[in-house]
Amino acid sequence: MFPFNFEWIWDMSHVVFMGGLWYALNIIGIGMTFCIIKAIYDTVKGKDDGHHAEH
Amino acid sequence: MDRALIPDGVQRDPLWKFILKLGPVVAVLIWGVVAMFLCWIKGLNQTNMNNYYGFALWIWADLAVIALGGGAFFTGFLRYLVGKDDLKYIINFAVLVGFICYSSALLILAIDIGQPLRGWFIFWHANVHSMLTEVAFCLSAYFGVLTIEYIPLVLENRQLDRVPFFHHLSHNMHGIMAVFAATGAFLSFFHQGSLGGVAGVLFGRPFAFREHVFIWPWTFFLFTWSAAAYGPSFTIMLLKITEKITNKRLVKDNVVQLLAKISGWMILTYIIAKIIDTWYWAAVTAPSKGFTLIDFYSNNAFYGLWILFLEIVVGGVIPAIILVSDKGRKNAKLLFLAVVLGVIGVSVNRWVMVLQVMAVPIMPFDQWALYLPSWQEVATTILPVAYGVILIALSHRYLPVWPQERELNPIDAPSAPEAAVAEDIDEAAEAAPDGDLAPAQA
Q1: B216 in contact with A at a CB cutoff of 8 Å?
Q2: What is the pLDDT of residues B57-72, one digit of tens each?
Q3: A52 to B95: CB separation less than 8 angstroms, yes or no
Q4: CA of B134: which chain A residue's CA is closest?
Q5: How many Å apart are CA B433 and CA B437, to the nearest integer?
Q6: Domains in chain B with CATH codes
Q7: Best residue in B155, B167, B404 for a mutation probing chain A (most A CBs within 10 Å)
Q8: pLDDT (tens digit, 9 = 90+) per residue, B414-439?
Q9: What is the model's pTM?
Q10: Average pLDDT, stretch B289-311?
């Protein structure tokens, strides 16, 4: 739900619930976007970052 | 083709043996899938739910796998945020178990809502006064986090890792994994808590209702606490079962001991809080609503005080004592017993907070609602187990889940100098005339 939806009300419940969801989704989205763009950059540059087998 | 996908330096069964072993599990999976489609095509009349008893068996399974999957967020929290570096040797498996648990939980919810095509309604037409809305939000977002944590493991497959883009992507995801782990811990705290909160706010059902801290009932904190406590025990239990099936040691003892110790102390502190909560509820909260403790455990054929004993003493106190003691943890059989009892304990807790809550009569003229699930419910509840076994088997076979496996299970091969000598002898034997000994053999 977004603030431009007809159901939206500017109250604490909507701001906290939906704000929390969008906050989490933004972190995940920005994090993944960063990883993908950097991976493309590293691939094009032919960067060698060695072997990794564990988290 | 299959050999080329198996990680370097490890031994796996031949493909035919692997497929043969998975056969019965695939049969169970198909049984569950048939039941699932029956529920989707014919509707929820395939279950034994009714207007009085609105939770199917799979809702218990849903809450149980979410609690047991808590090992992923808590191990990630310990590894990336607290800095317990040794846990890097088991974090891959914890993530895999979490991924299975949460994908199973979402699958169960997709069956439970009856019309999965309307699943997105909860995001678009959210009821922002419902704890279950928060659960749906956090569950979905956390499943995204677990997928992100699992993807690098898939990309490290021997063949995929050769593709430069996948190699770099996996490397970069490792680089910022702490951010994802922190997000996962945040999301887990809230959805585990809210699942408990749902029971605790039911003021019309005194068996579940608990006192509050601000807007949060005690069950909110107890659910989060128990997931963090018992989740790692579940990870250890599955690790031990996997080691038994594969006949290999996959993780070193010091890593398992560390996780077991943390789990033990978490269980001990949780069970003390749970005992205090239960005592206060039995002595103060329930009587204030007109009930005594024994009202909840009598006049029916199934629910007796035994279930309270099973949950708190057998599934809580005993595993806590074993896991916090050095001797208990280091004894392989006791360790396994403790983690199994822990898993039973938290599963019974979720059973009680979901199914017994619905069964206890509220009005003086009510009867106990003892519930027998239909075969479709049983099949769809077992479905995630079969799915989990298959995913663990595939990951074990093709992905580098165990960083210590090569060290713990060296493949017997002749060392380089020995191999060279053997080769020389063979060559000399071939060159020598029949009946003569080669110089080295002489």
Answers
A1: no
A2: 999 999 999 999 999 9
A3: no
A4: A17
A5: 8
A6: 2-406 (1.20.1630.10)
A7: B167
A8: 544 444 444 444 444 444 444 343 33
A9: 0.90
A10: 95
B170–A contact, CB cutoff 8 A: yes
Measured distance CA(B178)–CA(B173) in Å, rounded: 9
CA distance B338 to B441: 57
Q: Which of B53, B129, B39, B122 is nearest to B354 (CA)?
A: B53
B400 residue type, one letter: P
Interchain contact, B95 vs A55, CB within 8 Å: yes
Helix (H) or strand (E) segment spanning residue B217: strand B216-217
Query: Which residue of chain B is at minimal alpha-carbon distance from A6?
Result: B125
Which residue would you say has higher pLDDT here, A55 or B141?
B141
* A–B CB contacts, 8 A cutoff, strictly below: 95
Which of B138, B164, B174 minimises the CB distance to A52?
Answer: B174
Tokens of B352: 């009680």
Q: What pLDDT, on a 0 to 100 scale, did the predictor assign at position B115?
A: 84
Please, which pLDDT band fits residue A50 given cuts at 50, 70 and 90?
Answer: low
- First vs last C-alpha separation in chain B: 44
Q: What pLDDT, in 10s, does the model give residues B345-399?
A: 999 999 999 999 999 998 889 889 888 899 999 999 999 999 999 999 999 999 9
Cβ atoms of residues B26 and B390 within 8 Å: yes
Residues 6+ apart with CB under 8 A from B81: B178, B181, B182, B185
Beta carbons of B177 and A55 less than 8 Å apart: yes
From CA B410, how far away is CA B249, in angstroms rounded? 11
